[in-house]
């Protein structure tokens, strides 16, 4: 259903009854990123999935910053009369989930971050990444969505996804091709890693339980998760053998077990 908060209209899907699990997908994904997970969750979990700004049915809603998105989500929870949630974010959605937790700690019971980071540590790194994000936005604008998706699905970060079944790869490509190019451009410009404020300094203040999930083949995020664990007061790292960046896609059974334990313990 469509919901309007703070002049932005989002597509969300709200299903089930019980403890609330709020889910944020990654760049070029959609709320359907978590379809396999929902099939494996027990009936006593309520899930709320959001198509992120610039993506899928939410589509082109302007340049929404990470902080503005988190403000919108807080207002959405107020409208739905939900005081607290378990929060799961993948990649870009993980950065959003962590930012939301820092801004609205009273709203979050527990945080599960899949292949996510707190952003970049230095202004130099941020400026360099912001320039690269603008180059990607230019590629989308000039070459079109299909050419960009063909490039994006072959970046080194997703190399292990080549081992997926033909049907699963087709579904993933179809999900990536459903967007409007203007929406992805706005997402890169306003919510890209280079644009986001660094959350590293705030990790020590996150007092809730945090689960950090990454695949063993995603060495960059294995390293980031290790650094994050050292700073977070109450956290554990779960490394999934043989998986890459998209653990939920590459080992859906084990990922569902991690999420079940996270929500129901």
What characteristics describe this protein?
globular, alpha/beta, eight-stranded mixed beta sheet, 265 residues, Rossmann fold, 10 helices
Task: Describe the protein's architecture and organization.
With 265 residues, the protein is of the alpha/beta class. It has a single domain, classed as Rossmann fold. 43% of the residues lie in helices and 18% in strands. The chain contains ten helices and eight strands. An eight-stranded mixed beta sheet has the order 1-2-4-3-5-6-7-8, with helices on both faces. Helix 2 (66-79) packs across helix 3, helix 4 (123-143) packs across helix 5 and helix 4 packs antiparallel against helix 7. The radius of gyration is 17 Å and the shape is globular.
What's the SSE blueprint?
Blueprint: E1 2-5, E2 8-15, E3 20-24, H1 35-40, E4 46-50, H2 66-79, E5 85-90, H3 92-103, E6 108-114, H4 123-143, H5 145-152, H6 166-177, H7 181-191, E7 209-215, H8 219-231, E8 235-240, H9 247-250, H10 252-264
Parallel strand pairs: 3-4, 3-5, 5-6, 6-7, 7-8
Antiparallel strand pairs: 1-2, 2-4
Helix pairs in contact: 2-3, 4-5, 4-7
Number of DSSP strands?
A: 8
Shape descriptor reads globular
Helix content: 40-55%
Name the strands of the widest sheet in spatial order.
Answer: 1-2-4-3-5-6-7-8
Mean pLDDT: 97
> What is the helix tally?
10
- Gyration radius, rounded: 17 Å
- Would you tell me which CATH topology applies? Rossmann fold
Kindly report the name of the CATH homologous superfamily.
Alpha/Beta hydrolase fold, catalytic domain
Low-confidence stretches: none
Pattern of helices and strands: EEEHEHEHEHHHHEHEHH
How much of the sequence is in beta strands? 15-25%
In total, the number of domains comes to 1
CATH architecture term: 3-Layer(aba) Sandwich
Which CATH top level class fits?
Alpha Beta
Give the end-to-end Cα distance, rounded to a whole number of Å. 30 Å
Could you give a short account of the major beta sheet? 8 strands, mixed
SS-based structural class?
alpha/beta
